[in-house]
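Case study 2.
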Amino acid sequence: MENKFAIAIHGGAGTILQSEMTPEKEEQYKQDLMFALNRGYDILKSGGDAVSAVEAAVSALEDSALFNAGKGAVFNAQGEHEMDASIMEGKNREAGAVAAVKGLKNPIQLARKVMEKSEHVFLVGDGAEIFAKQFDLPFMDKEYFHDEFRYQQWLSIKDTDNFQLDHSVDKEKKFGTVGAVALDMTGNLAAATSTGGMTNKKYGRIGDSSIIGAGTYANNNTCAISCTGSGEFFIRGVVAYDVSCLMELQGLSLHDAAEQVIQKRLMEINGDGGLIGVDQKGNFVLSFNTEGMYRGAGSYNTQPFVDIYK
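Prediction:
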């Protein structure tokens, strides 16, 4: 029997209009997506574990200025970058999450340390940063996180009560949260998600990306899920867990459960966005109710590919 493995990644969903995208920019997005996808795919193909595969893929996306995570994190109301991330493995359902961390190059790596090296699941702010320093995880100065496009976007709304989801300009909305899900050859599943949140966000706002069950979930009996979109709705819909629950209790396939949650249940509360998922059999799903989603996937029987539009 062939050893099955699969991986899927996302770099955000939203109103991603081809008319707004230059060919050069589109090529850069695809290159960075493929680089991240291959980081995870190669680990799985060589027999590596799912947790390491999703961590590697998400770290690569955090290192790209094109996505709203890590290096590309958006500016909050104070002109700073507050980042959230979470990771979960499906065998024992261990999980780690961090929120409102500043200066950390790869928040997803800290989430993994919380999962594996602490008694806790969720650390926030200063405490999470103190914990990070015990493991010599790299911190970067403010210049590292400074992206001129994001800065100008923030300047246009900074003294207002408005906030924006990632790259959005007026009607064009993009949620640039990043994530990865994987199945390894031993049958273990894992999911990881990372974000810089909303431009001009206030009051220590936290979205779904760091919340287990809302933005990230993994259970070997069902699936691994990572979400992207309007975080408040994903929290209210407990979206990542909802997919798993429909598979477990109603016997739905990964594809049918994901479609039910994204196209129906989330829409009922006016939520927009998408999710990626993999199941025990090596199936993957890339589901969204927006114009597009930066995404990619590959498996034991599918060559790695990336896509942007519907």
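Confidence is low (pLDDT under 50) at residues 166-172.
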